[in-house]
Amino acid sequence: MDLPQQLFNGIFLGSIYALFALGYTLVFGVLDVLNLAHAAVFTVGACMALVLVARLGLPAWLGVVGASLGAGLLGLLLDRVAFAPLRGRPEERFAGLISSLAMASLFIAFVQGLFGPNAYVFPPDAVTIDALRIAGARLPIVQLVVIGVSLALMAGLGWLVQRTRFGRSLRAVAENPRAAALLGIDVARVNAETFFISSALGGVAGALFALAFDSVSFDMGTSVELKGLAVIIVGGMGSLLGAFVGGLVLGLAEVLAIAGIGSTWRDAVAFGLLFLILIVRPAGLFGRTGTRRD
Amino acid sequence: MDGLLSGLASFWATYESVAQFVGLNAILGLSIYVTLAAGQLSLGQAAFMGVGAYTAALLTMQLGWPFAAVLAAGVVAAGLTAFVLGVVVLRLRGVYLAIATLGFGAVFGVVLFNLPISGGAEGLRPIPSITTTWQIYLALAALAFGLWRMDGSTFGRSLFALRDDEAAAASLGIDPFRTNLVAFVASGMIAGLAGGLSAHLTYIITPGQFGFGPALDILVYAIVGGTTTFLGPILGAALLTILPEVMRQVPVDPGASELFVSGLILLLIILFLPSGLASLVVGRRRRSDARSPQSPTAAPPPSPSPSLEPSPSSRPQPRPTGGSPSPTPPAPEPLLAIEGLGRRFGGLRALEGLDLTVGPGQVVGLIGPNGAGKTTLVNAVTGLLPPSAGRVVFAGHDITAWPAHRVARLGLVRTYQNVRLFRHLTVLENVLVGAALGRPGTLGPRLVGRSRAQEAAARNEALGLLERVGIAHLADRPAGGLSYGDRRRLEICRALAARPRLLVLDEPAAGMTAPEAARVGTLVRELATEGLGVLLIEHNVGLVMATCDRVVVIDFGSRIAEGVPAVVARDPRVIDAYLGDAVASA
User: What is the pTM (predicted TM-score) of this model?
Assistant: First the structure.
């Protein structure tokens, strides 16, 4: 395989990592907790897309939209059940880690109970198998669409956070929830909305991943889960730009590593990168150096 | 009778392996307990277990070492791995540490997959089945005993103190990095032991047994059981190991139902029983050694007279720090000398060219308007915040930019403006954390049952100090539940327990009633009579005037006046900058 092909593959993989990590980092940036159920939401999103497309015969794009809405609702459930009740506890961050882990088990248990241990594929005509050829590289349309959708969603999220009234309350809560509440911001509502958006992005990532690789299984979240953590550390916890760049860096690094040293070492790349960043620059590439004041 | 016996025998035959895994998982739960006790979340336990398992299995299979030797080698290998990893990652905190250790686990898995010696994805087999049930439970019992003794020891308390408030712990001489590293290595070794035992039980080991899922399982044992006592992880492991066996009776996909039930239990525990199952069993009574039956009423009631305190001459010298000899300071030299101290935050000069001295037996007041730089000064002197210019000399040592725990060990101890107690420890335990500074630890003696006299002495001294500040009747209360004034008094008491030569009090009377503040003033004078130097930062001008030998006034980070209280109070610059209202209303 030649270099243009490698670069394309890396960008494709990286855009999925980035989209997945975006939800992680959004919740961390605003609420200062790590939502370990994000990978489970990713998996559920993929399953929803599968049901909508393969069982109900809807077109793929509707499957993705449906998955994002369904996953967003799961996000609201997560906030209500696993995070909101813990708010204000001294060990809130730690407790949130655990409760989200519990929710992840419940989500995955449902998926496993419904779908069993097998992997599923989409109907053969669900997505086009056409591809463009540029500079000798084969660029499947599906993968191009995935890249485009990821970029659009990331740009949209950036606009939402930086340019809208909602984004301003979100950033205020991220900076200091107590002060935000005193200024009349409905913090509980901002938290819920953050979870909705974060999980909707996770669901889209899952649906796109499933469509692009034509595979859905209950354990598909495991690999992205760890990669997503690596991405947000590399990019800087809480930084949207960091998640984007971190995702692309990881995707490219992995693809080039496979070509360079073989696929069995692929998973070491993410964590080699992670250790390097933690040692050299613990705040990540785009991380805030200050900590949140409570 | 025969029927009963044979029934028991067949029951045991069916369930012995369950019992074995309960024991192994309990050991793993204990391994993560050691780091959780210090407030550090390590998700590398499964990998440490893997290091122990592979080391032991390889030594058995390839070199035929005896079982005890391979277990020991597994423990050592896991401990070394934890040490190397800990040195790198223990600068990190919270989720960063969790992710870093998780990342280590993932890299370890990749290495296992790729190295020829570890058998790749196939793993290692056949590993002879040597481990017996009683060996597992012997190891578990030994560990449980050790951790039970640890919980009430000085080392155990320093872990709990770090978990509650790392900065406050460092201000009492606890070295956060070192203490965390010791806990981390110990936890790695325990996991390594579990690895060696389990490898010789399961016939085969593969990389998947030590991956992400098992790492989280170990955490779940500890959380479900509770992490305020060593009993918690044992209970959690037992419940979560036995439950799937019970679930087998239910005709649902076993993988899904097991996951569902463990997830549900975890969720219910974290929502409704945050201290875990153990809190149902032992309730709030834990680490009971601080108030074992023989104490505290049996202890001779300490009198509040100053004679209980070591006199200035008999005040023990703090241990020499960093190997450098501790010279006896010449008499005229001040205990603390701050020269030209400066601290900038970006473009903001919080402190500039500040000079200040405090002698033994002297009470020096530091006053100034809000934002003048008082707390910044305290932080810069006590190692919380390195100064950007100037020098701090204490007891003959240049302590500029020393870390907080070293400053404290030299005898410079502080309190915090916003009171920082170890809220999950009792009042008495808080004082005992302070009292541990410069004294031999009690973990070793406790393990061999020779700690009674040492602990009784420490306890009595702590109770005496509590008596002195007037809160001895609260000794067994959790510190988090005290009233504001009592919290301040406890913090002073805890600092005194560390036997400082210089005490820095950052607004000790803030929020106190007038009589309470007056008691603090009396106490400070008493302490000075005993030879203690005191730097008193206070907004209560009446208290400062009544208590201090000398007052330093700062504004905008620089000294604007210094002298005896009566003179400073009339200095027009001071009145202008700060005292105007206070004097007028006094």
Answer: 0.87
